[in-house]
Amino acid sequence: MPFPSCADLRCGSALVLFLCCNLAVAVDNPVASTSDVQRTITIATGEYPPWTGAGLPDNGQVNQVIQAAFASENIAVKFFYLPWKRAFEETRQGRFDASSYWYDSTERRTFMLFSDPLVINRTVFFQRSEDPPIQWQTFADLSNYKLSATVGFTYTEAFYQAVDSKVIDPLMVPSDTQNIKLLIAKRTDLFATEEMSGFYMAAQLHIDPRKLRVIEPALSTPTGYLLISKVHPEGEHIMALFNRGLKTIKANGTYQKILARVDDTSFYDPAKIDKAPK
């Protein structure tokens, strides 16, 4: 996953547009083929609200950005929601045209082409707001606290080194939802996840966001990308079109409008809550 919180793109030529109009959709095979109308590309993705999600408006903010970028190049998009590991592996093998959205890593660079940056997320530690603020600069400052973390989430190399060296000993759980429940139940003192995603999931659990405190500094500020397999025969061409489309929607203001919806929501900003959830 994302990881998934949370990150700029462009291109332009009549020849490329002509080529696009001669590409198409394979009905039974997720990987698109050629046509004289329009191309539809397939994107493997996963659940990481509010950034991605099958039940979210426009498939979530990041997937909406991706869809808008391709649309500016006259390319349609179809999202397939899978477990994150499977989404990556099947895209790596060429069964899908692309996958959204991923943080950077050496392993991923080995197999995948990376788009221009999509969004910049913030991975942060959450604590209960009723408790004294926790101050931290190094992981040693957190050694006396009960932490939890999510299996499969992309934390930092320093985080994993602190775990390996027993500086911290987080309880590893299957989901961020479980992390929030443990925190509110006072079974843990801290958990780390993407900032917007943490607030969103709390809202889904009817937890007043004012019960959560983000402690600074952020654990990391990872950049998210669209990935295309290096074995995809048209991978570089599709990526060039996408990057051009991303630059287009940044230039015309579409990109900013989509991401502004993330900040302008009551689940994230307690001041906009008329009545706190019970």
Based on DSSP secondary structure assignment, what is the total number of beta strands?
Answer: 11
CATH architecture of the largest domain: 3-Layer(aba) Sandwich
- Strand percentage lies at 15-25%
Described by the principal axes of the CA atoms, the overall outline is: globular
Order of helices and strands: HEHEHEHEEEEHEHEHEEHH
The low-confidence parts are: 3-37, 273-278
Description:
The chain has 278 residues and is α/β, with parallel strands linked by helices. It folds into two domains: 14-120 and 223-270, 3-Layer(aba) Sandwich (D-Maltodextrin-Binding Protein, domain 2), CATH 3.40.190.10; 123-221, Periplasmic binding protein-like II (D-Maltodextrin-Binding Protein, domain 2), CATH 3.40.190. 32% of the residues lie in helices and 21% in strands. Strand 7 (147-150), helix 5 and strand 8 (171-173) form a beta-alpha-beta unit. Helix 2 runs antiparallel to helix 9.
Give the helix/strand layout.
Blueprint: H1 14-21, E1 39-45, H2 61-71, E2 75-81, H3 84-92, E3 98-103, H4 106-111, E4 112-114, E5 119-120, E6 123-128, E7 147-150, H5 157-164, E8 171-173, H6 176-184, E9 190-194, H7 195-204, E10 212-220, E11 223-229, H8 235-251, H9 254-263
Parallel strand pairs: 1-2, 1-3, 7-8, 7-9
Antiparallel strand pairs: 3-11, 4-11, 5-11, 6-9, 6-10
What are the main properties of this structure?
single chain; 278 residues; alpha/beta; D-Maltodextrin-Binding Protein, domain 2; 2 domains; 6-stranded mixed β-sheet; 5-stranded mixed β-sheet; 9 helices; 11 strands; 21% strand; globular; disordered C terminus
